[in-house]
Amino acid sequence: MVTFYITTLGCKVNQYESQQIRQFLQSIGLSQTFKPENADIAVVRTCCITRNASSKSRQAIKRIHKANPECVIIANGCLIDSETEEKPQDIESLVLQRENQQLEKILEQVCGKLKTEERIFESGLKNYGRQTRAFLKVQDGCDGFCSYCIIPKIRTDISSKPLENVLNEAQELVDSGHREIVLTGVFLGAYGKETVKRSRWRQSVNREFLKLVDSVAKTPGLERLRLSSVEPGDISEELMEIYKSRTNLAPHFHISLQSGSSRILKLMNRQYDSETFRQKIDLINESLHKPAVTTDIIAGFPGETEADFKKSIEMCRYCGFSKIHVFSYSSRKGTGAENLNGHLPAGVIKQRAAELAELGDRLAEKYRNSLAGQEAAVIIENENTQSGKCERYLDIKLTEGNFRRGQLVLAKILPSGKEAAPCR
């Protein structure tokens, strides 16, 4: 029997698409292995959001080749579809599959004729493999052209999955045992729209997005629904009303700040300013009990002055983020930021990234400590450690009990914020 191995770099959309590939390969009779040395075929879903991501994608390919030189490696995803000069090479058994090449056809060449008419990336998932949390991709594509981002030149087709299909897939995932679903997309808040540019929308509030969230939350048996990533413009009073009425909606939002300086946000071509971001955080905090807000910030964007950087620091303190993902700015060929003036020395970028990361650690600890004595719903992910994610996206270890993987356990968070005692 032909065996396959899959590894995925990058975002939740990439991870979802890897699951689609996994489901397809299993449907045509291939057997999955979790060790590359045992694979006949390896699929590497690449990422190129940063130069570091491109490097990690290449390293993943090299590791598989080193472990199994006879394995045919099929690399696809954003790095392969990009116009960067960072693509992997010099491996004879490597096949680069671009977006306009059907993976089905490449597999047919690799492992013989396939008896299927199914198109991989048009099929919904029936299960999410061995994971307790299932991602459900509902939107693809972006034309926002943030000046640091290469994705609008790669994922150019803006599309949304019909709501009926989303609901059917959500029910399939719940029926297969997944207690939590995470809605994801390249620009999730643009669900149902033909553009992500809000200035071209008839209304500032996206009713299709609101209906999506409310409808999926009603899925019978769904214990928890989470949004993967939203923009400040997606946060509205209407969305907060839905959150208050649906108890299975996780009080956690990942909202990319990128910079606390309105001047830098304008250079980044973001669709909000710092005051708008602050107002959205206020709205979330006023509407929900101890919500968790995680974020992304870019350190050292071209033209960022010390004053601009301090505004990012101040904004982080104001928002009290439960986690900050810090990215050191790196120039990407083909992006608007590549041609901006004021590119900063590597040392300055490194120092600012380190300061943001240190602040992020302090804020994360402060947020965890604030939850002491609160009740949390933990979905067990690791039976050996009796730990899993709670609704606020924190890893929590239970102090006692013997719960099975996938089980939802109500527990009271202890002073450390990292452990919880099961409620009796």
UniProtKB/TrEMBL annotation:
<keyword id="KW-0411">Iron-sulfur</keyword>
<dbReference type="Pfam" id="PF00919">
    <property type="entry name" value="UPF0004"/>
</dbReference>
<dbReference type="InterPro" id="IPR005839">
    <property type="entry name" value="Methylthiotransferase"/>
</dbReference>
<dbReference type="InterPro" id="IPR006467">
    <property type="entry name" value="MiaB-like_bact"/>
</dbReference>
<dbReference type="InterPro" id="IPR023404">
    <property type="entry name" value="rSAM_horseshoe"/>
</dbReference>
<dbReference type="InterPro" id="IPR038135">
    <property type="entry name" value="Methylthiotransferase_N_sf"/>
</dbReference>
<dbReference type="InterPro" id="IPR058240">
    <property type="entry name" value="rSAM_sf"/>
</dbReference>
<dbReference type="InterPro" id="IPR006638">
    <property type="entry name" value="Elp3/MiaA/NifB-like_rSAM"/>
</dbReference>
<keyword id="KW-0808">Transferase</keyword>
<dbReference type="InterPro" id="IPR007197">
    <property type="entry name" value="rSAM"/>
</dbReference>
<feature type="domain" description="MTTase N-terminal">
    <location>
        <begin position="2"/>
        <end position="115"/>
    </location>
</feature>
<dbReference type="GO" id="GO:0051539">
    <property type="term" value="F:4 iron, 4 sulfur cluster binding"/>
</dbReference>
<keyword id="KW-0004">4Fe-4S</keyword>
<keyword id="KW-0963">Cytoplasm</keyword>
<dbReference type="InterPro" id="IPR013848">
    <property type="entry name" value="Methylthiotransferase_N"/>
</dbReference>
<dbReference type="Pfam" id="PF04055">
    <property type="entry name" value="Radical_SAM"/>
</dbReference>
<protein>
    <submittedName>
        <fullName>Threonylcarbamoyladenosine tRNA methylthiotransferase MtaB</fullName>
        <ecNumber>2.-.-.-</ecNumber>
    </submittedName>
</protein>
<keyword id="KW-0408">Iron</keyword>
<keyword id="KW-0479">Metal-binding</keyword>
<dbReference type="GO" id="GO:0035598">
    <property type="term" value="F:tRNA (N(6)-L-threonylcarbamoyladenosine(37)-C(2))-methylthiotransferase activity"/>
</dbReference>
<dbReference type="GO" id="GO:0046872">
    <property type="term" value="F:metal ion binding"/>
</dbReference>
<keyword id="KW-0949">S-adenosyl-L-methionine</keyword>
<feature type="domain" description="Radical SAM core">
    <location>
        <begin position="128"/>
        <end position="366"/>
    </location>
</feature>
